[in-house]
TrEMBL record:
The keyword DNA repair does not apply. GO terms for molecular function: ATP binding. The keyword Nucleotide-binding applies. Belongs to the ABC transporter superfamily. Residues 6-258 form the ABC transporter domain. Keywords: ATP-binding, Nucleotide-binding, Transport. Residues 338-357 are annotated as: Disordered. This is ABC transporter ATP-binding protein. InterPro entries: AAA+_ATPase (IPR003593), ABC_transp_ATP-bind (IPR050319), ABC_transporter-like_ATP-bd (IPR003439), ABC_transporter-like_CS (IPR017871), Oligopep_ABC_C (IPR013563), P-loop_NTPase (IPR027417). Residues 343-357 have a biased composition (Pro residues).
C-alpha cells in the first residue's frame, strides 16, 4: 500500500460503567473499540463491515474527532490528531468530513437546505466568497441528484433518501481529502443506492478522495471498496482486498457473514453451505477471554480461550490469495458458495414413459 494519508494504530474506546448517584464509582467499562489498526492510502476506499454493535460507527466518530479515544493514535499525513483542539482541529476537520448514518437526526430541522449545505462555508469562509455561496450550494444539490431550487426547503419536506443526499452534499462542500461514510446508503432505495455509489466513485476519481466506507450490505462494500476490514466485538478479525475477503475468507466469522448473503443463482444457492451461528453476541462490557468469537465458533479449542489471536497472515498460507491478515488460530479457507465449475452436473432429463403411464 502507498504512503497512508490516514493511519490508525491500536485505537481504543472504552465507555465507563458507574454506580451511585452522589458518589459515582466506576465498576467496569463498555469496550466498544479495543485495539483497531489500519491505514488508508490516498485515493483508496476502505470498507468496514460487521454486525450491529461491533464498533464500526464508534471508529467513524473517532476519525473525525467527535469522540476522544481512550488510547491509541490517529495520524493524518503523519500528524497525530487525537489531541488537537482549536484552530488546529478546525484545519484538520476541513479535510476529513463525515456522512452520518441517520438522515433524520443529522440535519437541523430549523435550517433550510441551503443553510445546511452552506454552513461549512460560514465556518471556513476562505473556501467560498460570501456572494458565491448560493451558487455553490445549488451546484452541490445538482451533483447529488436534487433540484437546485430546493435551497429554501426544510428537511421535513424531503424523504429519507433525499435527506441522506443532502448530508452527502454537505460532506462534499469543502472538497475534503478523506470522507468517512457511516452507512451512507442504508436509507436509500436500491436504484438510488446505485446512483449514490456511482456518484461517490466519480467524485473519488475527480477529486482524488479517500473513503472509509461503513455498511452492512456486503455487496455494496465489495463494489466500492479496494480493501475490506471485518470487525467483531470491537476488533478487526480479517482484512484484505475485496477478492481476498469475498473469494478466499479464512476467518470463521467472515465465512459466516458471507454465507448469509443472498445468492441470485438458484443452482449455486442450492449447493452452498449455510453457516448458522448459535448464541448471541457477547456483551462488550464483559467480552470473552482470548478470541472474542470463540463462544460462537465451531472451531473453538482451549487455545482460543487462553490466547488472543494476532491479526497476521496465517502460517498455513504464506502465499496466494489466502495470504492476508486473519485473527484466528485455526484460519483456513472455506468455499461458502461453490464456484461455477464446482457445481455438480444437472440431473439427466427423465426418460420416455413406458407402459402407458
Amino acid at each position: 500500500m502507498a504512503e497512508p494519508i490516514l493511519e490508525v494504530r491500536d485505537l481504543v474506546k472504552h465507555y465507563p460503567l458507574t454506580r451511585g448517584i452522589l458518589f459515582k464509582k466506576q465498576i467496569g467499562a463498555v469496550k466498544a473499540v479495543d485495539g483497531v489498526s489500519f491505514g488508508l492510502a490516498r485515493g483508496e476506499t476502505l470498507g468496514i463491515v460487521g454486525e450491529s454493535g461491533c464498533g464500526k460507527s464508534t471508529v467513524a466518530r473517532m476519525l473525525v474527532n467527535l469522540e476522544r479515544p481512550t488510547a491509541g493514535a490517529i495520524s493524518y499525513k503523519g500528524e497525530n490528531i487525537t489531541r488537537l483542539s482549536g484552530r488546529a482541529l478546525k484545519a484538520v476537520r476541513r479535510n476529513i468530513q463525515m456522512v452520518f448514518q441517520d438522515p433524520y437526526t443529522s440535519l437541523n430541522p430549523r435550517m433550510t437546505v441551503g443553510d445546511i449545505i452552506g454552513e461549512p462555508f460560514e465556518i471556513h469562509p476562505e473556501v467560498a466568497p460570501k456572494g458565491d455561496r448560493r451558487r455553490k450550494v445549488q451546484e452541490l444539490l445538482d451533483v447529488v441528484g436534487l433540484n437546485p431550487e430546493y435551497v429554501n426547503r426544510y428537511p421535513h419536506q424531503f424523504s429519507g433518501g433525499q435527506r441522506q443526499r443532502i448530508g452527502i452534499a454537505r460532506g462534499l462542500a469543502l472538497r475534503p481529502e478523506v470522507i468517512v461514510a457511516d452507512e451512507p446508503v442504508s436509507a436509500l432505495d436500491v436504484s438510488v443506492q446505485a446512483q449514490v455509489v456511482n456518484l461517490l466513485e466519480r467524485l473519488q476519481d475527480e477529486f482524488d478522495l479517500s473513503y472509509v466506507f461503513i455498511a452492512h450490505d456486503l455487496s455494496i462494500v465489495r463494489h466500492i471498496s479496494d480493501r475490506v476490514g471485518v470487525m467483531y466485538l470491537g476488533r478487526v478479525v480479517e482484512t484484505g482486498t475485496d477478492a481476498e475477503i469475498y473469494d478466499h475468507p479464512t476467518h470463521p466469522y467472515t465465512q459466516a457473514l458471507l454465507s448469509a448473503v443472498p445468492v441470485p443463482d438458484p443452482q449455486a444457492r442450492a449447493h452452498r453451505e449455510r453457516i448458522i451461528l448459535t448464541g448471541d453476541v457477547p456483551s462488550p462490557a464483559n467480552p470473552p477471554s482470548g478470541c472474542r468469537f470463540r463462544t460462537r465458533c465451531w472451531k473453538a479449542r482451549q487455545r482460543c480461550a487462553d490466547e488472543v489471536p494476532l491479526l497476521a497472515v496465517p502460517q498455513a498460507f504464506p502465499e496466494g490469495p489466502a495470504a492476508h491478515p486473519s485473527a484466528c488460530h485455526f484460519a483456513a479457507e472455506k468455499h461458502v458458495v461453490p464456484a461455477e465449475g464446482e457445481l455438480p452436473p444437472p440431473p439427466p432429463p427423465p426418460g420416455p414413459l413406458h407402459g402407458g403411464q
